Automatic annotation (TrEMBL), chain A:
<dbReference type="Pfam" id="PF13618">
    <property type="entry name" value="Gluconate_2-dh3"/>
</dbReference>
<protein>
    <recommendedName>
        <fullName>Gluconate 2-dehydrogenase subunit 3</fullName>
    </recommendedName>
</protein>
<dbReference type="InterPro" id="IPR027056">
    <property type="entry name" value="Gluconate_2DH_su3"/>
</dbReference>
<dbReference type="InterPro" id="IPR006311">
    <property type="entry name" value="TAT_signal"/>
</dbReference>
TrEMBL record, chain B:
<comment type="similarity">
    <text>Belongs to the GMC oxidoreductase family.</text>
</comment>
<dbReference type="InterPro" id="IPR036188">
    <property type="entry name" value="FAD/NAD-bd_sf"/>
</dbReference>
<dbReference type="Pfam" id="PF13450">
    <property type="entry name" value="NAD_binding_8"/>
</dbReference>
<dbReference type="InterPro" id="IPR000172">
    <property type="entry name" value="GMC_OxRdtase_N"/>
</dbReference>
<keyword id="KW-0274">FAD</keyword>
<dbReference type="GO" id="GO:0050660">
    <property type="term" value="F:flavin adenine dinucleotide binding"/>
</dbReference>
<keyword id="KW-0560">Oxidoreductase</keyword>
<dbReference type="InterPro" id="IPR007867">
    <property type="entry name" value="GMC_OxRtase_C"/>
</dbReference>
<dbReference type="InterPro" id="IPR051473">
    <property type="entry name" value="P2Ox-like"/>
</dbReference>
Length: 195, 559
């Protein structure tokens, strides 16, 4: 049977075609749900619809990137905290065209690194390879004091640690501490303050 | 003809609030004219919002940042900032000056960092001793009871130290130093026995008095959200303290969105008869008449109004027979200092956000000599790093999360504020041709540091580095080699200076214009020298004192 046979079409092709066929975000979201049960497991993320600024493709990459930088561990990570949505919203509401270009480029560059290193798009790599690609990119860009990437990473961190999840589940935050205790054993406080 | 008001106060900020309170409490029907919009204490603040409740996590859109001088600022405080392009001013070629304003009810008393220090006897004597500037017509003893008065009402938290260069005041309980600050203090005192480190003295209530509570003010909650305004009224501002007290007398009227244009001079009486205003919204002109006029529009703002008050008698601005109006513009020499890291103490932390740091009072030309005159003090603080450190360091994934879950290492900063000498060539004038949206001539600022200021700046950097190194901090770096441009300290003063001689100063020892007996200027404009302490507490004391005398003179029929 040929690859075009609708009966044998693989999951990957289906999803890719669906993007063209359905177009709208609603269709993508409907499809995204089934991608989780994909035979490729982790390798295929939930497909994101286009954001308010980012295209659907970049939104999907962004989600993978923030999930890799701040994953779920014993506490929820960046995706649970909505960091990808936050960054998209910042591009729409806050960023100037130059900044948007910088962010697009960071996202695309990471994807190009994936293709160069592993021959496939970032979103289709297994978790370990994604991690290696982003870890190396992060080390290289910060080593070069690369400003666009620094801004990107800063926004990921602020998006996470100032979200309710990041500030209150991962770290601690008190809107009204009520008192200043100048010297306390760290063990008594527990984790770092979000602010 | 009877006047509309007994007293008119132009400006509702740090000094205007005090003038209004003291005049109204002495039974004078008082009008406050404020150019900015009304702000409602409490309801106009954003201090009950957690970070995630603020739109876009509190970022101001990049395209709008240009209106705020290109600075990245928080959206939750942007409504206290002017849009610079609405309020232009010009500067002399090659002489940058940053004029940082707050145009709204309460002025910069809502925006300040609340550090509150008295000037000392040596500060009031300095001009006379080394010959720079006019001799102050008052001494510490004249102001001391007024410092007591304003501290009791405003509420200043601090630690008494018994230092001649930084007199103690009427303090509420001090805040505490954290562990590394205590270590720094102890090692500093060992190495430099005459350099002291003390907790910052700040206008926060730590044990509110009955009078403060009656105004609806409560104790500080250690939130450090002060720049959004404080609904607890825990820090001193015109809105938390002086204006509510003035309102209680029943003698206060406030108008907002009305720009003080000029002081009206009456040749027949030789006195000021009122204030001409421009409605900020309709641009209509109107005149309010009053028996005494207090200008409290901030140092440069008050000079601006006076320069624009031109008459046949005073063609270059009201009360300017000395030609000193607009001259001797000063700020603190700032941008100096150093920072470093303290290894270890990683098992020590704190709880709460202390809205205050520590202070190292002046030692140059007090206990240690220098190759310049006057001196500087340092503000500073030590704290542990937070998650923001993750942005610049390599690392992702679970390990990054794990690392940022713990506080980072300890770091410290020291920021020097130095005394800038008076120099009549540093001045503000009216722009010869350009006007603002309301038809008022723009202000032109011509100001630069002198030799003494720059020499002092270099020594301040050296001292900061030396103190941190001696205390065991590592990676110690001076902040920058040259000071920030004048204006950056936001302690601008001078321009309508006090002095004994009407030939060389504009105001006398009661802040009364030598030439116009019912005109008083009590904001930073009146300062004959800057000392090195944050100045606002002194503006408060001077305003309260001048209001007292103005009311007396009025009662005695002297003005
Ligand atoms: C971020 C920041 C931190 C600071 N930290 C400290 C500190 O820690 N310690 C310290 O001592 N000082 C500090 N300052 C400085 C302090 O805020 C000022 O010294 C103080 O507010 C000056 O008081 P003022 O009454 O002269 O002026 P303002 O408080 O600025 O008030 C002037 C008022 O007059 C109004 N006005 C101006 N022109 C006109 C006009 N033509 N007609 C009518 N109204 C007019 C303004 O709108 C304003 O409301 C800080 C300032 C800032 C901005
Ligand atoms: S730290 Fe104190 S003064 Fe500042 S906002 Fe909080 S309660 Fe108010």
């Amino acid at each position: 049977m040929s690859d075009n046979d609708p009966m044998t079409i693989n999951r990957r092709t289906l999803l890719r075609q669906a993007v063209y066929m359905v177009g709208g975000a609603a269709g993508l979201n409907a499809l995204a749900a089934c991608s989780d049960q994909s035979a490729e497991g982790d390798a295929i993320p939930r497909l994101s619809g286009p954001g308010r600024y980012f295209t659907g493709v970049r939104m999907t990459r962004l989600k993978v990137i923030v999930d890799t930088i701040i994953p779920d561990t014993d506490t929820p990570g960046a995706v649970a905290a909505g960091v990808h949505t936050f960054i998209d919203q910042m591009m729409a509401d806050w960023a100037e065209p130059d900044t948007r270009d910088q962010f697009d480029k960071v996202i695309d560059e990471i994807d190009e690194r994936a293709v160069a290193a592993h021959g496939d798009r970032l979103t289709r790599l297994p978790q370990e390879q994604r991690f290696a690609v982003i870890r190396d990119y992060d080390a290289e860009k910060l080593g070069q004091r690369n400003w666009p990437y620094r801004r990107f990473k800063d926004l990921v961190l602020v998006g996470y640690y100032h979200s309710q999840i990041g500030a209150t589940e991962e770290l601690q935050y008190e809107l009204i501490p009520g008192e200043w205790k100048a010297c306390l054993p760290l063990a008594e406080v527990g984790s770092a303050w979000a602010d | 003809m009877t006047a509309d008001f007994d007293a008119i106060v132009v400006g509702s900020g740090m000094s205007g609030g005090w003038a209004a309170k003291e005049l109204a409490e002495r039974g004078l029907k008082t009008l406050v004219i404020e150019r900015g919009r009304h702000i409602e204490h409490g309801t106009d603040y954003t201090d009950f919002k957690a970070p995630w409740e603020l739109p876009n996590l509190d970022a101001v859109p990049e395209r709008e940042q240009v209106h705020y001088g290109g600075r990245v600022i928080a959206a939750s405080t942007a409504h206290f900032r002017i849009k610079e392009d609405d309020h232009p001013y010009s500067v002399a070629e090659g002489k940058p000056f940053r004029w940082f304003r707050g145009y709204h009810l309460g002025g910069r008393s809502l925006m300040w960092a609340r550090q509150s220090y008295r000037m000392s006897e040596m500060d009031f004597e300095a001009n006379k001793k080394d010959g720079h500037g006019n001799d102050w017509p008052i001494r510490y003893a004249d102001l001391a009871p007024w410092y007591d008065h304003v501290e009791r009402f405003a509420g200043i938290s601090g630690q008494a130290e018994g230092l001649p260069q930084l007199p103690d005041g009427q303090f509420q309980p001090p805040m505490e130093l954290n562990c590394v600050e205590e270590i720094f203090r102890d090692r500093l005192h060992e190495t430099f026995p005459t350099r002291r480190l003390t907790i910052g003295r700040c206008a926060h209530l730590t044990a509110p008095t009955a009078e403060q509570q009656a105004l609806g003010r409560g104790p500080c909650q250690s939130r450090s959200l002060c720049s959004r305004g404080c609904s607890y009224g825990a820090y001193f501002s015109s809105l938390s303290a002086t204006l509510p007290a003035a309102r209680k007398t029943g003698n206060l009227t406030i108008v907002t969105d009305e720009i003080g244009h000029s002081v009206v001079y009456d040749v027949a009486t030789g006195k000021a008869s009122g204030v001409r205003v421009v409605d900020a919204i309709t641009r209509e002109h109107r005149v309010y008449t009053g028996r005494i006029i207090f200008l409290c529009a901030s140092a440069i703002g008050s000079a601006h109004i006076m320069l624009n008050s031109r008459s046949e008698r005073f063609p270059t601005g009201i009360a300017n027979s000395s030609d000193m109006l607009g001259r001797n513009l000063m700020d603190h020499v700032s941008g100096l200092g150093a920072g470093g890291y303290m290894p270890g103490y990683t098992d020590q932390y704190y709880k709460g956000r202390r809205p205050n740091g520590f202070y190292i009072p002046r030692f140059r030309n007090v206990t240690e000599d220098a190759d310049f005159v006057r001196g500087y003090g340092f503000q500073g603080g030590a704290s542990r790093g937070d998650w923001r450190r993750g942005g610049g360091q390599a690392g992702i994934g679970a390990a990054l999360k794990q690392d940022l879950r713990k506080p980072g290492g300890w770091s410290v900063w020291l920021a020097g504020f130095g005394e800038m000498l008076p120099n009549p060539d540093n001045r503000v004038t009216l722009h010869p041709t350009k006007v603002d949206k309301w038809g008022i001539p723009l202000l032109h600022i011509d100001c630069a540091y002198g030799k003494n200021d720059l020499k002092m700046a270099r020594q301040a950097n050296r001292d900061a580095v030396e103190m941190l190194q001696a205390a065991g901090f590592q990676g110690v770096n001076e902040r920058k080699a040259e000071p920030d441009e004048p204006g950056r300290a936001i302690h601008e003063m001078g321009t309508v200076g006090m002095g004994r001689d009407p030939g060389t100063s504009v105001l006398n020892g009661f802040n009364q214009a030598h030439d116009v007996p019912n005109l008083f200027v009590t904001d930073g404009a009146c300062m004959a020298s800057t000392a090195c302490q944050n100045p606002s507490l002194t503006y408060m004391a001077i305003s309260a004192r001048a209001a007292h005398y103005a009311a007396e003179f009025l009662k005695e029929g002297k003005i």
